[in-house]
């Protein structure tokens, strides 16, 4: 079998690239080792796929080569994917902060991609494994469970390591190394963090409780929900900061992200001098959390008994509460994989390898990782479009 373009991986990036190349008249084959394509799309956004973010900028991505994603993102924007979604009659809504979701189901996004692939006469093979890949002239030969397949161009779209049960594999990294590419160290991102020892003892009783917070790690801070779990902490603010967190980094939690804690305490002292700190905090925080913070560190007495200096100390503690995470839940639950194929060795306008002619890497297998909120799919669409237009 001979194809002009073979794409390994039928996820978001692979299907998008296949559709674009197929519609240009290229003979395209997608090889997917799982029993169906787009599994991560199906489970994304709680089943409604947060398919893009209106506010996408290069600043929403982590990459060792910070300018790399600019070109592709500029050439394929959220409005372009929205136009595609609209053409397919898929109803959508903005949830918050520019995050767009399907009104009905993420199945509609997989359907969209499959319909676009069909328009380009793309052949898709599921349950197909690639045993080996070698170069043949300017092209490639693949040994697969379907037999020998020749390809003029090869696109690696096999994703990262997160959620192995959904088909994730280290295949793309192995192949990149085989062809002389540098693979930057990988680790789980957008992942719940775990606590241990006394930290876990202190906070595990709060499991299930969520609150608004801002979570800081070094110079980075994210505001959003924080959820206590049986193993540690999660929720959007924690998932976001997890991509920047390294073992032994201290997290500083602001429990009152929307207000100045000192002004709040001073106003409460003036208005309710006899009220206990614990009671006053229960007015702005979940009561069990307020009790825990008072029991662990803040103490509690009637507000009139606090001097100005003590109020300042309380405010500082409420806005920079240290929590030491012991680790993360790892790839089992991570939404993304940080690190991957070094983008210094790829063209930022086409995603083609600078080392091997006609070899492309797209999607999560590369060292480009978005923040939470639709940015990862937008990157998948944009880089796939860039490769699909030339492959
Ligand atoms: P993706 O992982 O989608 O596809 C890779 C494909 O390659 C898979 O189908 C895999 O089975 C296949 N494959 C792997 N090894 C292979 C091999 N050896 N041979 C053949 N095939 C192989 N992002 C976002 O923007 N909004 C959201 O709402 C969410 N939600 C979300 C929820 C959950 C639970 C997860 C785990 C992730 C998200 N994400 C997200 C992240 C998003 O899913 C991710 O960034 C994209 O799917 C990446 O697209 P890729 O095509 O690069 O990889």
Automatic annotation (TrEMBL):
<dbReference type="InterPro" id="IPR023166">
    <property type="entry name" value="BaiN-like_dom_sf"/>
</dbReference>
<keyword id="KW-0274">FAD</keyword>
<dbReference type="Pfam" id="PF03486">
    <property type="entry name" value="HI0933_like"/>
</dbReference>
<feature type="domain" description="RsdA/BaiN/AoA(So)-like insert">
    <location>
        <begin position="187"/>
        <end position="336"/>
    </location>
</feature>
<keyword id="KW-0285">Flavoprotein</keyword>
<dbReference type="Pfam" id="PF22780">
    <property type="entry name" value="HI0933_like_1st"/>
</dbReference>
<dbReference type="InterPro" id="IPR057661">
    <property type="entry name" value="RsdA/BaiN/AoA(So)_Rossmann"/>
</dbReference>
<dbReference type="InterPro" id="IPR036188">
    <property type="entry name" value="FAD/NAD-bd_sf"/>
</dbReference>
<protein>
    <recommendedName>
        <fullName>Flavoprotein, HI0933 family</fullName>
    </recommendedName>
</protein>
<dbReference type="InterPro" id="IPR004792">
    <property type="entry name" value="BaiN-like"/>
</dbReference>
<feature type="domain" description="RsdA/BaiN/AoA(So)-like Rossmann fold-like">
    <location>
        <begin position="4"/>
        <end position="389"/>
    </location>
</feature>
<dbReference type="InterPro" id="IPR055178">
    <property type="entry name" value="RsdA/BaiN/AoA(So)-like_dom"/>
</dbReference>
